Amino acid sequence: MPVRNRFADLLPEITAWRHDFHEHPELMYDVHRTAGLVAERLTAFGCDEVVPGVGRTGVVGVIKGRSTASGKVIALRADMDALPIHEESGVDYASKTPGKMHACGHDGHTAILLGVAKYLSETRNFDGTVVLLFQPAEEGGAGGKAMVDDGVMDRYGVQEVYGLHNTPGLPVGHFETRVGGLMASSDEFDIIVTGKGGHAAAPHEAIDTTLVASQIVVSLHTIVSRNVDPIHRVVLTVGTFSTDSTASNVIAHRAKLQGTVRTLDPVNRTLAEERIRRVAEDTASAFGATAEVIWHPGYPATVNTAEEVAHAVAAARAVSDHVNGEALPIMPSEDFSYMLEARPGAYMFLGNGDTAMCHHPAYRFDDSAIPYGCSWFVELCERRMPA
Fold it and tell me: Which parts of the chain have pLDDT scores under 70?
């Protein structure tokens, strides 16, 4: 079964919505225009309930099927926020706000879910309730957590939750997902090394924090190679190294490292934090210095549940002949993870063709992917809640 004919008919309209969102990108929780248009359209489609201001600036739409006797409630999620990037895509509907751009395709995700809302409001060919979650602040603001913390899962009795993300490099019409860890957690750390500043001509009278911090950098990279099971994926990166010295003949009194660690399961996430602290503190101590580790927890890993992946894959195979249910995990992070911690569900990758990667100024969302994303969501709802 290919994409639904109705979405081929609706494609010009959905594309127009997407281009409008693209021209007016908004960041983090400041998505008032986008959220307002989403709520306006959901109301016009005839959704049974439209609630703005969930998770600060998120929008919830509720669509009931012809019957709700099954008691089933499924949530579908789209993210609305853009990125602080100056656009270089060359499209004629490019961002009208310098320094802001939909460089991750969230405009496409929002347009897709609006298309789904219009279709389901028209047909209602299911027995149960669909809850549409339009969330703010995926790009670093944990908008998914904000909506969960605002009680969205309990308030609407959500039992399962599904989302999708476009994937540059994957052909349009292709789908990919997997059971278990699909995307990594992302935590950040600062390490402040304090020693004893001095003159470069008398290093024996100082405690050289540049040397100490350098040893910490080298030692940190043994965590992945010597403490983590080799079949598991963990990425540790020290991204910045600075000292309070401003001259070549000054031994710095203080040095600062900043880095990130990404893991696919909670055990390795805990292990990484414990080992980073121990390596930094003990290495510094060995040289007579001290190291303070400041931990900045980020998004948890995006972990799909097995039964829901099976449903997601079956729905995708009804739409496309190109479905990979055993995709390799990737190490970027995604705050849909908070929704998957709250309810079982699955996250799906949707092909976006041969485009620049996400977060690149030349990135382009491929509008021909829209009918595939819409059809997948609808197929999933109707299969999980047959009328």
Answer: 1
Give the residues across from 127 on adjacent strands: 67
Instruction: Give the 3-state secondary structure of residue 369.
Output: helix
What is d(CA 198, CA 251) in angstroms, rounded to the nearest whole number?
5
**Does the global pTM surpass 0.70?**
yes
Bridge partner list, 259 = 189, 238
User: How many CB atoms neighbour CB 78 within 10 A?
Assistant: 27
Following DSSP, what letter does each residue of 299-365 receive, concatenated? PPPEEE-HHHHHHHHHHHHHH-S-EESSPPPBS---THHHHHHHS-EEEEEEE--S-PPTT-TT---
The mean pLDDT of the chain is: 97
Instruction: Give dist(CA 114, CA 79) in Å, integer.
Output: 12
Q: Domains of the chain by range and CATH?
A: 5-182+301-384 (3.40.630.10), 187-296 (3.30.70.360)
